[in-house]
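FORM 7B: Structural annotation worksheet

SECTION A. Query
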Amino acid sequence: MKSRRRPYAEQRPQDLGGGVWSVPVPIPGNPLGYTLVYAVDSPKGPVLVDAGWNHPDAWQALSGGLSALGLDVSAVSGVVVTHFHPDHAGLAGQVRQASGAWIAMHENDAALVRIMNEHTADEHDDFQSDMLRRAGADPGETRRARAPRPTPPVPPDRELRDGDLVELPGRKLRALHTPGHTPGHICLHLEDADRLFTGDHVLPDITPHIGIYPFDRDDVDPLGDFLDSLDRVGELGPLDALPAHEWIFPDVAARAAQIRHHHEEKLVRLRALLAQRPAPLTIWEVAAMMTWNRPWDELSPVLKGMAAGEAAAHLRALEARGQVRRVAGVDPVRFQALDS
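SECTION B. Predicted structure
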């Protein structure tokens, strides 16, 4: 099926009806192109769902887009962030400066934002280098695969938990904790209109990155969390989905089921690949064996690092299911298939 994705230059602010608007905000240098920021009407001023990347062009697009819809960024009463990534949380601080708005996100992501703000860029580089080394990357790959750290988002004023209502007088906007893409990712159910703001959790044409950081953690299972979260979204039924990227689409439950099936098939293929190898493999070796949108050798070093994070999450999910094991006492960490 041909993708309906269109470049940012073809996007326009839209009145979606029912007191909901969307503003496309560019992401400089990113193939996703833009983040869809939503505004929801409120007697105290509009509440934004996400804010966009912290960049002058993005700020101009957000403030100008709101103005084109008859809204004023200085009147925004709140920003609820679906997750801490910079294309969602980056401009929240500037919106707060312009309007005095509160900022809210899930408590798990709020904790990560505090950690990010407490550490320097050099400490971030050291963390990445050691993580890549333990995954099995050679020294040259370790240097090249480090991603530059974006400016950390500002800490939120309010922390949300699963089931909390966002402050939106006259309406019901409920947080649904959907971890996986980040530990504190939330979808937001506009219950009075049967619409679901899905952030990056459920997108119409692509699937979000599900990684594990550090790669060799054995105390969390982000892919397992993500699959469980897809089931929770599916239980809401065929709601209209308002995602943070690509386009608005109907029947979020059907799309959630498709994404779950995609990952289950990926897990089956990965288990089969490991079963064919007599010796345990590093995370980096496993990532090189997996199927990506381009051949492994054509991926940039930074994308190889992201692929390793996703490979690690799939290995951890298989480990949690008792289908693979990690070899004890080796560095870099290695995994091996267990007999079925």
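SECTION C. Observations
The two ends are 36 Å apart (CA to CA). The CA atoms of residues 80 and 104 lie 5 Å apart.

SECTION D. Sign-off
Analyst initials: ____
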